[in-house]
Amino acid sequence: MISKLNTIWTIGLCALIGIATVTVICVASETPESLAHSLSSWVSNLDKMERITNVPHRMDDSTAMYCKPTYNINPHEGVGEAAYCHVYVSLEGIEAMKSGQGKYPQGTVIVKSKLESETSGDAILYTVMRKMKKAYDADHEDWEYSILDGPSKRVLARGKLDSCIACHQAYATTDYVTRAYIK
Ligand code: HEC
Questions:
Q1: Which helix (H) or strand (E) holds 130?
Q2: 14 plus 93 within the same structural domain
Q3: Distance from the CA of 87 to the center of ligand 1, in angstroms?
Q4: Is residue 8 located within the same domain as residue 43?
Q5: Structural domain count, the chain
Q6: Which pLDDT tens digit goes with each residue over 129-155?
Q7: Domain contains 19
Q8: What is the gyration radius of the CA atoms in the chain, in angstroms?
Q9: Same domain, 162 and 73
C-alpha cells in the first residue's frame, strides 16, 4: 500500500516538474534576447550598448529633480544643482534614436546614467526604459520604466511607473523618448 502511494506521488511529481519545465521554456522562448537579460546586467555592461552622448549632457533642472524616484536617494543632492548624464541605447534602437523617426523595436533598452559629477564617469543612479512585448502597456507604447541604484546596480523600482509616463508622454511623437541630448 505504502509503495503504491509512493509510486503515485512520484508520477505526480514528475508530471508537475514536466509541466513547469515546458512552461519555463515556452515563456523564455517568447522573450526577445534583449528582454531576457536582467536590468542589472544591462547597466553592468554599458560597453555593449551605443553611447549617444559624446560628452556628459547637462540635465534639465526639472529632470534633475524628477527623473528619479520620489524619495531622495542622494541626501547631498540639492535642488537646482547641475546634474549630468550619459545616455546609451541597445543596438536595435540606434536607428530610431539617431533619426527621431518611427517606433523603437521590441527589446530596445535605453539607459540614462546619472553621473556623480560632470567629470566623474561613476553613476549615482540609472533610469531605464525597455520596450516590452506588445500589449504590455498599449496606451503608452509598451515601455517599462525602471530605476536602479548606481553603485549596487540594484533595481529600486520598475514597471509602468506613472511618474515617468506623466512626463515622457509629452514626447509621444518620438515614441516617448525625449532625445533632448541630441543636438
Ligand atoms: C519632469 C519630466 C521627467 C520625468 C518625471 C522623467 N523623465 Fe526621463 N527624461 C526627461 C528628460 C527631459 C530627459 C532628457 C535628458 C535630461 O535632460 O535629463 C529624460 C531622459 C530619460 C531617458 C533617456 C531616453 C530619453 O527619453 O531621452 C530615460 C531612459 C529616462 N528619462 C527614464 C525615466 C524614468 C525611468 C523615469 C521615472 C523614474 C523618468 N525618466 C521620469 C524627463 C523626465
A1: strand 123-131
A2: no
A3: 10
A4: no
A5: 2
A6: 999 999 999 999 999 999 999 999 999
A7: yes
A8: 21
A9: yes
> pLDDT tens, position by position, for the chain (183 residues)?
666 767 767 766 666 766 666 555 545 545 667 777 899 999 999 999 999 999 999 998 777 665 555 444 444 444 557 899 999 999 999 999 999 999 999 999 999 999 999 998 899 999 999 999 999 999 999 999 999 999 999 999 999 999 999 999 999 999 999 999 998
Using CA atoms, how far apart are residues 47 and 125, in angstroms rounded to an integer? 17
From residue 106, how far is each of 62, 142, 174 by CA, in Å?
A: 29, 9, 15
* Whole-structure pTM value: 0.81
Question: Are 69 and 21 within one domain?
Answer: no
Ligand 1 binding pocket, CB closer than 6 Å = 59-60, 62-63, 66-67, 85, 87, 110, 112, 127-129, 145-147, 161, 163-164, 167-168, 177-181
Cell 509503495 identifies what position?
3
Distance CA 43, CA 123 (A): 10
pLDDT digits (tens, 9 = 90+) for 107-118: 999 999 999 999
And the C-alpha cell for 143? 515601455
Domain presence at residue 181: no
